[in-house]
Design a protein that fits this description.
The chain has about 625 residues and is an alpha+beta fold. Helix content is about 35%, strand content about 15%. It has 25 helices and 19 strands.
């Protein structure tokens, strides 16, 4: 396996040289980004001149690397001063979050998205590796381990100081390379190896993040940078320098939290660590570097020590870059900033084959406000039930919806189905003119509200609001747009929550009450599909609420003829079984679509849908309801 890798991959790694040869060998920088002039440093190694002149220290931190955190996290951020570290590596050393009792829940439930939105073409060299070596592997866990244990040792080596094996020549720690440059160089410090492994995981669709280890004082202290990846519903700690994980006897891989629990988890983590040290002590001289015997003795001593090394740790996300060549495409895919004054500006400008709002062209998108009319007043007794979902980067109306839905449960059931949502619509003509035109064109001739709603769901929404990954697809869009209703129609693209909004507005303009439904996949379905939640709708007709999925264009008829509500579809009995059968049938129908209907990444989009087919019959679990009032 590794022999084959070394032939195909992008770099040629230097191995088997004498110590004298290594000290005079240049770090490989086969690219045009920097000068290849070399200078000799104190330890006799040759490094690029640009790395020696200290100008690299001022390397900027790319905007995509930064993240917004809740204010309460600030006291828990560890800002470590690392001499001469530059650019993105400096940012990482300054902004990681300490794991402790206060941050544990946030770090393991809210902080890192468990779904990767990778834009094809951003990291082409990583794509080539992933496509070649793990594309045929179905399990995310198996993919990650293959990348860690088979690919990483071939494409990366650690500098020759005996800390990790295989060793290579010295490189400076202040290079501030971007991801593609790291891969081209191949000789990397532990934080750089962590970055490469995380990018491989993310390109493969596997969430991954930094773990900064602080070794215990009794073991002599020190620090090391490793990673965690998310698979099978768990975060799993993975060392991208020594290429190993920490298995529990029950088969799951231990997270960083479990490796530091001072109990059973840490016991098994330390066993895995000592086993790795024992394996390293048996490596060849050439892999152990210039001080092979010293390193061998050191690893042997560590393998025999009964001192626990894992002391404390911090976590940091490593956001994906967005860098398609077309600058206007960057603007459309990443509408990160929005000035308040331009929030509802509908002056349009051209972008390739479409028109987009002027504010999107200006690329100013962060602080989208929540308009007053979208807010829903609740009785005091309902407020404790409200589900406040932390969704990173979601803004404006969509942020409010994520924070304000009311869970359906025994206490709220009667309220949600008898009082919460008005069953008449007070729509004023002229409020949403684009929606009025669609309703007039497509359903004005239909008599019943049920016919109108089903026609809007199955014939209109799939045309005017196409999903990025579910056929008929259009193209990738960011999840943080915060668009108004009319802007969603102009866009023509929509995630599930945005499709729900479009469908609700079409219904309301047609005089049909409608509202949002947020449902959670069952734990088993979430683990197997990689999906946690989905946003759909309910509309009111024939004296009852009826569940409707605008993404998959499906309603849920009962054998007696009525359309089932979200409550019926989550009843744990006949209704739920029937609803899940409808989903399985619909997923299977859509899977027969041509590749061109699966959008810009048909292979991965089809695989995601096929995962849903497998979990369809046990996917439903619980749901929340959210009103979507009409704008004033």
């Amino acid at each position: 396996m590794r022999k084959n890798l070394s032939v195909l991959l992008l770099i040629v790694l230097i191995a088997g040289q004498s110590c004298e040869q290594k000290s005079k060998s240049p770090s490989k920088t086969d690219n045009d980004w920097y000068s290849k002039d070399l200078v000799e440093v104190e330890n006799g190694s040759l490094i690029p001149a640009w790395a020696n002149d200290a100008k690299i220290y001022d390397a900027p931190v790319p905007e995509w690397a930064k993240e917004n955190l809740p204010d309460w996290i600030e006291p828990h951020i560890v800002k470590q001063t690392v001499k001469n570290v530059a650019g993105i590596d400096r940012y990482h050393s300054y902004y990681r979050i300490r794991y402790n009792e206060e941050t544990a829940k946030f770090l393991y439930e809210d902080y890192t998205p468990v779904r990767v939105n990778y834009i094809k073409g951003v990291l082409p060299s990583y794509e080539a590796i992933v496509n070649k070596y793990v594309s045929e592997i179905e399990s995310d866990k198996e993919k990650a381990i293959q990348l860690l244990t088979e690919v990483m040792p071939v494409i990366t080596k650690h500098p020759s100081n005996g800390l990790s094996v295989p060793c290579s020549l010295y490189v400076p720690g202040n290079r501030a390379f971007d991801d593609e440059q790291l891969l081209a160089d191949g000789i990397l410090w532990c934080n750089e190896q962590a970055r490469v492994f995380m990018r491989l995981c993310q390109v493969a669709g596997i969430p991954a993040r930094y773990v900064f280890l602080g070794y215990s004082e009794e073991s002599g202290g020190g620090a090391h940078v490793v990673t965690e990846f998310y698979a099978d519903g768990y975060w799993s700690m993975a060392d991208a320098s020594d290429f190993f994980v920490h298995p529990h006897p029950d088969g799951h891989l231990l997270s960083a939290a479990e490796c530091h629990d001072k109990g059973e988890g840490q016991k098994y983590a330390e066993i895995a660590l000592r086993k790795k040290f024992r394996e390293l002590s048996e490596e060849s001289d050439e892999n152990l570097g210039c001080t092979a015997e010293t390193n061998r003795c050191r690893f042997r001593e560590l393998s025999e020590s009964d001192v626990n090394r894992y002391g404390h740790f911090e976590i940091l996300n490593y956001n994906l870059p967005v860098s398609p060549k077309d600058e206007k495409e960057i603007i459309w895919r990443n509408l990160f900033y929005l000035q308040d004054k331009n929030w509802l500006s509908m002056k349009m400008v051209p972008l390739k084959n479409r028109m987009i709002p002027e504010w999107a062209e200006e690329s100013k998108f962060y602080g989208a406000p929540i308009p007053p009319w979208v807010k829903v007043d609740l009785p005091a007794w309902v407020s404790p039930f409200v589900r406040k979902l932390y969704v990173e980067g979601v803004v404006g109306i969509d942020r409010y919806h994520a924070y304000s839905s009311v869970p359906y449960c025994e206490e709220t059931a009667k309220y949600l189905y008898e009082q919460y949502t008005p069953i008449t619509v007070d729509y004023k003509n002229g409020t949403l003119p684009a929606y009025e035109k669609l309703v007039q064109k497509h359903v004005s001739g239909l008599k019943s509200d049920r016919e109108k709603a089903v026609h809007l769901l199955t014939k209109v929404v799939p045309v005017v609001a196409k999903h990025p990954t579910i056929p008929p697809c259009r193209e990738f869009i960011p999840g943080n747009r915060g668009l108004s209703d009319e802007e969603l129609l102009v866009s023509g693209d929509a995630w599930c929550n945005e499709q729900s909004r479009v469908f609700i507005r079409l219904c309301q303009v047609a005089g049909i009450p409608a509202r949002m439904i947020f449902f959670n996949y069952s734990e088993k379905a979430a683990q197997e599909s990689g999906l946690a939640a989905h946003v759909i709708s309910e509309f009111y007709t024939e004296g009852r609420w009826s569940m409707a999925d605008p993404t998959f264009s499906v309603v849920f008829p009962h054998p007696d003829g009525h359309l089932m509500s979200a409550a019926d579809c989550h009843d744990g009995g006949e209704g739920q079984a029937l609803a899940q059968q409808y989903y399985e049938k619909r997923y299977t129908e859509i899977n027969k679509s041509d590749d061109e209907d699966f959008g810009c990444d048909p292979e991965n989009n089809r695989k995601s849908l096929q995962k849903l087919i497998k979990v369809a019959l046990y996917q439903l679990d619980r749901f929340q309801v959210m009103n979507y009032p009409l704008p004033n």
